[in-house]
Amino acid sequence: MNFIIRLFITALVAFGLSKLLPGVHIPDFKDALILVILLAVLNAIVKPILVLLTLPITIVTFGLFLFVINVIIISIADKLMDGINIVGFWWTLIFSLLLSAISSFAYALVEKK
Predict the structure, then answer these.
(1) What is the pLDDT averaged over residues 70-89?
(2) Is 113 helix (H, G, I), strand (E, B) or coil?
(3) pLDDT at position 49 over 90
(4) Residue 76: other Cβ atoms inside 10 A
(5) How far apart are CA 31 and CA 43, in angstroms?
(6) Rounded to whole angstroms, how far apart are CA atoms 79 and 83?
């Protein structure tokens, strides 16, 4: 049940960010929910492989390359879905950072209750 609540919170945050960021286009909440489910699957399957393959550069950059891996994961989800469009690397990076930060804050608020 907690996982479903987290999915809905993240989808709500993603949909809200699409209304605030001009480079991120998510037409409706249904597309945001599909995006979040796809991101969960990609984070479970593709991200560990990418982290393992890029471990040397991640170590050299003191973990900052993980931001690039997050951008790659969101870009893959963007390419796999017809409903959303994220314009360019920088908008994807900003979207990724804000989605992580705001979702974590929202989880903390929900878990306190």
Answers:
(1) 93
(2) coil
(3) yes
(4) 16
(5) 18
(6) 10
Structure tokens at 91: 């908008």
The tens digit of pLDDT for each residue in 1-20 reads 788 999 999 999 999 999 99
- Are the CB atoms for 42 and 76 separated by under 8 Å? yes
DSSP string, 70-87: HHHHHHHHHHH-SS-EE-
Look up residue 46 and give its amino acid.
Answer: V
Cβ burial of 45 (10 Å; 0-12, 13-18, 19+) is exposed
What are 50-64's pLDDT values in tens digits? 999 999 999 999 999
Query: How far is 73 from 70, CA to CA, in rounded Å?
Result: 5
Contact 69, 54 (CB under 8 A): yes
Domain ranges, ordered by start, for the chain: 2-112
pTM attached to this predicted model = 0.90
- Rounded distance, CA 12 to CA 62, Å? 31
